[in-house]
Design a protein that fits this description.
Helix 7 links the parallel strand 10 and strand 11. The protein is an alpha/beta fold. It has an eleven-stranded mixed β-sheet with strand order 1-8-2-3-7-4-6-5-9-10-11, sandwiched between helices. Strands 14-13-15-12-16 form a five-stranded parallel β-sheet, with helices on both faces. It binds adenosine monophosphate and magnesium ion. The site of adenosine monophosphate has 18 residues, from strand 6.
């Protein structure tokens, strides 16, 4: 199959491309599209065959449910029942935006889309291309991230192409995404709201709207012995090809330890990459002997760190790094999402110094 890549942007050509993409999805095809978080791989959420094709294209286990994307609040009533007061409050505060809500599903949503669960994940994204596509596709687009299972989620259309070329009908190229990490997932089907996956909408933000919110205990568990509640969080995700180790400790101490580990790895014949910050980059350049040193930005600028993390992991893959070291970051606010993805990418390899 030939995968067509079309730039969206302003103007008629972009609009035409989105309408065509909508047609492809209505007919059971697959289209990758930008959202404010990461690129999604979209199919018709009401078509069981589309869900099967998404699983096949990603090489993803079919018990790992997809997120149903909508473009109008009232469409939630078709796919979820009941729609509790808490969902209204969250939608009011954060939709359209990077938040996914788990609710009991209706029969309108096939079991293939929800990986056999009787619940459905619903998201109302803010990205304009995403909204136009959902509308053109009939209102309900099932989409996980547009990467091959086990690779970092794509933040650029180029990375979607790397993973999906020849497997899907079309890629809508909307440039680099804004947030760079997947949506926050909050489960409203239990007694208390619970965060299953941290994201740009933080625990503190959710608590301002809902009062107390629990966090699935496995999210920041460094040993990962517990079983996460979101099926997708159970798999080793976001994994670079090189072996990534997080070095945790006071910033200066950690940076010096990384220099030493990097030199040892170089002597052992490894190709070494370092995830640095603006504050430590010069030290690594002078002392680490690493092959590639990439800064995620200022340590205090969480938005920048979140946006560049997956891109850097993919660049290290392209450059053939066999060993990667990263500093660790604050795990409060959006930092919780950053550290959650970093732990997973590292297969929970953390060294304290
Ligand atoms: P992705 O956008 O690729 O990260 O995939 C969707 C994520 O949403 C996966 O981690 C799924 O496990 C999670 N998810 C989707 N539906 C549900 C659901 N009904 N209950 C819990 N988690 C879900
Ligand atoms: Mg994913």
């Amino acid at each position: 199959m030939e995968t067509i890549v079309v730039k969206t942007g302003e103007g008629q050509a972009g609009e035409q491309a989105v309408l065509r993409a909508g047609q492809i999805i209505r007919r059971g095809g697959l289209v990758a599209f930008p959202t404010e978080t990461v690129y999604g791989l979209g199919g018709d959420a009401c078509n069981p065959g589309s869900a099967r094709r998404i699983y096949a294209a990603k090489g993803r286990p079919s018990d790992n449910p997809l997120i149903v994307h909508i473009c109008r609040w009232e469409d939630i009533y078709k796919i979820a029942d009941p729609v509790p007061e808490a969902a209204h409050k969250l939608a009011e505060a954060f939709w359209p935006g990077p938040l996914t809500i788990i609710l009991k599903k209706t029969d309108f949503v096939p079991m293939e889309t929800t990986g056999g669960l009787d619940t459905v994940a619903v998201r109302f994204p803010a990205d304009r291309t995403a909204l136009a596509l959902i509308e053109a596709a009939g209102g309900f687009v099932a989409a996980p991230s547009a990467n091959v299972s086990g690779r970092p989620s794509p933040t650029l259309a180029r990375y979607v192409q790397e993973d999906m070329d020849g497997r899907i009908e079309m890629i809508l190229d909307g440039g680099e995404v804004g947030i760079g990490l997947e949506s926050t997932i909050v489960d409203l089907t239990g007694e208390k709201p619970m965060i299953l996956r941290p994201g740009f909408v933080t625990k503190e933000m959710l608590e301002e709207v809902l009062g107390r919110v629990d966090v699935d205990k496995t999210i920041l568990d460094k040993n990962s012995r517990l079983r996460p509640k979101a099926p997708g969080m159970r798999y080793r995700h976001y994994a670079p090809k090189g072996e990534l180790t997080i070095v945790e400790g006071e910033a200066g101490t950690a940076a010096r330890a990384i220099c030493q580990k990097s030199r040892e790895a170089k002597r052992a014949g490894e190709k070494v990459g370092i995830i640095a910050t603006q504050e430590t980059k010069a030290l690594y350049l002078a002392q680490s002997m690493a092959d590639s040193i990439k800064s995620v930005g200022n340590r205090s600028d969480e938005a920048a760190v979140g946006r560049s993390l997956y891109r850097i992991l993919r660049e290290f893959d392209d450059e053939g790094m066999t060993v990667i070291f990263s500093e660790s970051f604050s795990d409060s606010g959006f930092g919780q999402a950053i550290m959650n993805r970093l732990f997973k990418a590292a297969g929970h390899r953390v060294e304290m110094v």
